[in-house]
């Protein structure tokens, strides 16, 4: 273990910010509209249960990483599947990370166009944000950690805004509790699962955490925080809107934020959307960085900066040219399905392999 | 390190250049901000939209109001059509009031709600009103007032007068919900050509069904809101012996409860009211008199609230959200079966009246 130099490591508690910031993204602004498809007013429960279940997934991930040579999934793949198949697996994983980064980027540009600047072409935003992404990702893992840190701390202040909205909530909208079938809860959980995606990047950046044993509890705490945040937001939204109205809304969180008014500022959601850049940035950067690192370790001859530029070119092409609605929908389905596949099927599979490997090593 | 610094510098320059390149300014006197928007039915099908747009000029006193009318097949086609008449691009972001003509509201507002009301550009602190005349006519009269204060006119009547609190959010919650019906303020044109607030109109599904007079609106607001500061008159007796009480509402808390066994709804109203005027023969310092006044007012109130609820039931409208209340306490609630039984649903009213201060005692 320990190919990462001491001066590139980050303190254990940063794992909290890294995991939490990658789990919160654009999904926070719209997930309520999706999860009600199954259990309606009870779907907050699905969010809670799925979030608690993710602790198990994280535990599996950490177990897998413990069994690997270098402390990341790249070396685990190579040692378990051999050099060639392992590298193919790594590249597939890298493509997935790249896609999820692109997806976060694409949706944020989409929001900017829908809510704020309806007449401005997507490539302009895309180019502007690319400059920032280039700066952050080229800066290395410690810069990314810093972005994650501020991506949690600063948007956390906006939570106080919900105090403004207490005047309008009505508990009767969310009642009666628990009046759905198990099947409905499962449908809601499936819709809710995608909002938690992003924390699987821990598989790649884990070697960068100092004193890993201490760090694990921060990881679990991060997932718990995300779970509670999503559950409370969902519950609050269900008290704020009637279910039938929610079905007509695409961006429930933004619709709530719209209510906040100051004498000097009529439309607060504009500021809120720009604050959200700080929430989206860690998702984009951590995934992109994870993708680049995976490629770099698999094909050592490629220069990381070169990979980054290629990625950004692809991102700009997609954001600027492939703006059709069908493409956005396909991208969303692809990312969420493959993400679910990874955390629900692939990780347990690797976990079983890791257990067997551990047993064999002991004998 | 100089290479790194050069790179950062280059990025900074690029950032600034792109940022400035992206800015699109929309200065307030270079756009046409719609202030009031009206909907009417056109004679040959389609919708007539009307809008009031203030002109901001350098000279503050000389502000003009532009009045636009056009006809289109759907509400989403109205704005581009109106835009052909304005000197600046039309902006809907600051619509303050949306006015429905009576005919339009009675024939159904689904189209307007689904096309216009859910656009992100529209704010949420928008008031909606239905006019007893055509919206077009109402807006024309309003233009003559030259004040553009319809929003404020509705708002202060909600906070300090008899109207129940309403805005686009409350309206949409009621409009879409299964167990509630929407209600919006009603306005009319009075004899002196002023726009006047006269009560609320209640929708059934998307059609205007029932209009409440000011007294009924006051009672409705008392049940619906906790803070209503309306003034209300109670008269008892005939002609010459008639006694008149005037009260001013201060606070009212209504507790709804559904009894699943008896299948009836219980409403407890806790009222804190101020006595503004009462007949000379009573003195409020006298405990007996006070109890008597309370009894008279409560009884009369009980009777009138019952009439109001009966009116709702006869018309099959549920602006109070009784359906939603029962849904929240009964797991087997079903919209259709509930509203089939709704006209005969028993509602027990219990009034606890507290007189807080009279302002006239000495």
Name a few traits of the molecule.
heterodimer; A: 363 residues; mainly alpha; Amino acid/polyamine transporter I; 14 helices; 73% helix; globular; B: 362 residues; alpha/beta; 8-stranded mixed beta sheet; 4-stranded mixed beta sheet; 14 strands
Order of helix and strand elements from N to C terminus of chain A: HHHHHHHHHHHHHH
Q: Number of DSSP strands of chain B?
A: 14
Q: How many E-type strands of chain A?
A: 0
Which class do the helix and strand fractions of chain A yield? Answer: mainly alpha
Poorly predicted ranges of chain B: none
Brief write-up:
The complex is a heterodimer of chains A (363) and B (362). With 363 residues, chain A is mostly helical.
Can you offer a commentary on this structure?
The complex is a heterodimer of chains A (363) and B (362). Chain A is 73% helix and 0% strand. Chain A is an all-alpha fold and 363 residues long. Chain A has a single domain, classed as Amino acid/polyamine transporter I (Up-down Bundle), CATH 1.20.1740. In chain A, 45% of the residues are buried. By secondary structure, chain B is an alpha/beta fold. Chain B has eleven helices and 14 strands. Chain B is globular and about 90 Å long. The model of chain B has no long low-confidence stretch (mean pLDDT 83). The A-B interface holds A 114-115, 117-120, 124-125, 127-128, 131-132, 134-135, 168, 171-173, 175-176, 179, 241-245, 247-249, 251, 254-255, 258-259, 261, 266-267 and B 8, 11, 14-15, 18-19, 21-22, 24, 93-94, 114, 118, 120-121, 123-125, 169-170, 172-178, 180, 321, 324-325, 327-331.
């Amino acid at each position: 273990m320990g190919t990462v130099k001491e001066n590139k490591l980050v303190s254990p508690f940063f794992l909290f910010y890294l995991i939490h910031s990658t789990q919160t993204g654009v999904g926070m602004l719209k997930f309520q509209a999706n999860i009600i498809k199954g259990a309606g007013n009870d779907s907050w429960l699905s969010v809670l249960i799925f979030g608690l279940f993710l602790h198990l997934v994280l535990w599996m991930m950490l177990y897998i990483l413990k069994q690997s040579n270098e402390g990341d999934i790249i070396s685990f793949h190579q040692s378990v599947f051999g050099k060639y198949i392992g590298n193919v697996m790594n590249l597939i994983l890298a493509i997935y990370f790249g896609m999820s980064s692109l997806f976060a980027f694409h949706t944020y540009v989409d929001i900017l166009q829908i809510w704020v600047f309806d007449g401005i072409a997507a490539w302009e935003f895309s180019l502007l944000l690319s400059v920032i992404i280039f700066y952050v990702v080229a800066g290395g893992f410690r810069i990314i950690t810093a972005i994650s840190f501020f991506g949690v701390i600063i948007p956390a202040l906006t939570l106080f805004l919900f105090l403004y909205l207490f005047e309008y909530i009505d508990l009767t909208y969310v009642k009666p509790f628990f009046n759905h079938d198990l099947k409905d809860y499962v449908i809601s959980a499936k819709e809710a699962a995608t909002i938690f995606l992003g924390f699987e990047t821990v598989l790649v950046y884990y070697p960068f955490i100092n004193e890993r044993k201490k760090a694990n509890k921060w990881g679990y705490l991060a997932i718990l925080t995300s779970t509670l945040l999503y559950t409370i937001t969902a519950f609050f939204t269900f008290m704020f809107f009637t279910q039938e109205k929610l079905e007509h809304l695409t961006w429930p969180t933004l619709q709530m934020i719209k209510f906040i008014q100051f004498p000097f500022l009529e439309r607060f959601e504009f500021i809120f959307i720009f604050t959200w850049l700080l929430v989206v940035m860690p998702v984009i950067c951590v995934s992109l960085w994870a993708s680049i690192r995976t490629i770099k370790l698999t094909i050592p001859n490629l220069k990381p900066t070169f990979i980054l530029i290629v990625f950004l070119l692809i991102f700009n092409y997609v954001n600027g040219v492939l703006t059709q609605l069908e493409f956005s929908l396909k991208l969303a389905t692809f990312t969420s399905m493959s993400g679910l596949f990874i955390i629900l099927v692939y990780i347990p599979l690797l976990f079983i392999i890791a257990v067997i490997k551990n047993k064999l090593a002991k004998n | 390190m100089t290479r790194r610094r050069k790179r950062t510098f280059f990025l900074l320059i690029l950032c600034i250049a792109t940022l400035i390149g992206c800015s699109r300014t929309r200065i307030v006197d270079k756009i046409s901000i719609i202030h009031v928007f009206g909907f009417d039915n056109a004679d040959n099908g389609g919708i007539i939209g009307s809008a009031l747009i203030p002109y901001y000029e350098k000279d503050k006193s000389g502000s003009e109001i532009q009045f636009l009318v056009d006809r289109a097949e759907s509400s989403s086609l109205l704005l581009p059509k109106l835009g052909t008449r304005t000197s600046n691009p039309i902006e809907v972001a600051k619509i303050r009031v949306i006015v429905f003509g009576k005919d339009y509201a009675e024939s159904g507002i689904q189209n307007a709600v689904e096309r216009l009301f859910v656009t992100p550009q529209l704010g949420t602190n928008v008031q909606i009103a239905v006019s007893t005349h055509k919206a077009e006519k109402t807006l024309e009269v309003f233009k003559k007032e030259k004040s553009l204060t319809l929003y404020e006119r509705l708002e202060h009547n909600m906070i300090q007068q008899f109207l129940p609190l309403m805005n686009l959010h409350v309206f949409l919650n009621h409009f879409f919900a299964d167990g509630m019906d929407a209600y919006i303020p009603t306005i009319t044109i009075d004899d002196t050509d002023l726009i006047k607030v006269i009560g609320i109109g209640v929708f059934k599904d998307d059609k205007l069904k029932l209009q409440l007079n000011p007294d009924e609106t006051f009672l409705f607001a008392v049940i619906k809101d906790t803070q209503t500061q309306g003034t209300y008159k109670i008269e008892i007796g005939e002609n010459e012996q008639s006694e008149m009480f005037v009260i001013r509402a201060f606070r009212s808390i209504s507790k709804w409860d559904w009894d699943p066994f008896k299948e009836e709804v219980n409403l407890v109203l806790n009222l804190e009211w101020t006595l503004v005027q009462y007949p000379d023969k009573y003195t409020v310092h006298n405990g007996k008199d006070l109890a008597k006044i309370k009894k008279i007012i409560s009884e009369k109130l009980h009777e009138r609230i019952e009439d109001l609820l009966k009116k709702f039931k006869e018309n099959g409208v549920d602006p109070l959200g009784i359906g939603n209340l029962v849904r929240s306490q009964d797991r087997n609630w079903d919209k259709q079966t509930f509203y089939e039984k709704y006209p005969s649903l028993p509602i027990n009213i219990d009034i606890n009246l507290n007189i807080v201060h009279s302002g006239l005692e000495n």
